[in-house]
Amino acid sequence: MATALRAVLFDLDGTLADTAPDMARTVNAMRAARSLPPVPLAAVRPFVSRGARGMIGAAFGVTPEHGEFAAMREEFLAIYAENLCVDTRLFPEMDELLDLLDDRGLAWGVVTNKFERLARSVIDGLGIGARTAVLVGGDTCERAKPFPDPLLHAASVLSLAPSAVLYVGDDERDVQAARAAGMPVLAAGYGYLGNGPAPSRWGADAVVDSPAGIARWAGLSGG
Asked: Active-site residue numbers?
């Protein structure tokens, strides 16, 4: 890398933490209220990175253009706010990566399209809130990813040039946002990935299959 790495920023859902079980719990509560059978986690997991819009679409076939979407979105957010960290966990090896970053004196933070208040509750529930150098939610800036604004805001908070900050995400828009911000970017191949083009086609610097792969790519560990 041309510029020495000074910080790492993570997308939240599907990159830092496996939030899919609680997102699925939320849409299944909505389905139960409508006397509908639950949907399996595997059916909705690929859509978790798209938030309420993706989950409502996957579980109900309702798009933002549908007349009931706005009310269903509010219902989703209200239920999810009460179920943020029931089964949500950091991805395997993520604890070790965060410890490694701390040991190396590299700042790390979260840039997500999840509402900031919800993202804060998730990282606090995971016990890492106090260690997080910066948290940017989907409503922190005027424009969310795939625009670069949230990533540029995070770099500004860290007082770092974007080129010194690595971004890691599991959705194509994460790569688009990082490229527009002038940040190096990795695709989290272990994440949710959506149902679009394969991560190898997103234009990231590399696709990694685990948090340990992030450390190896950044030259923070051997192997």
From this structure: 11, 13
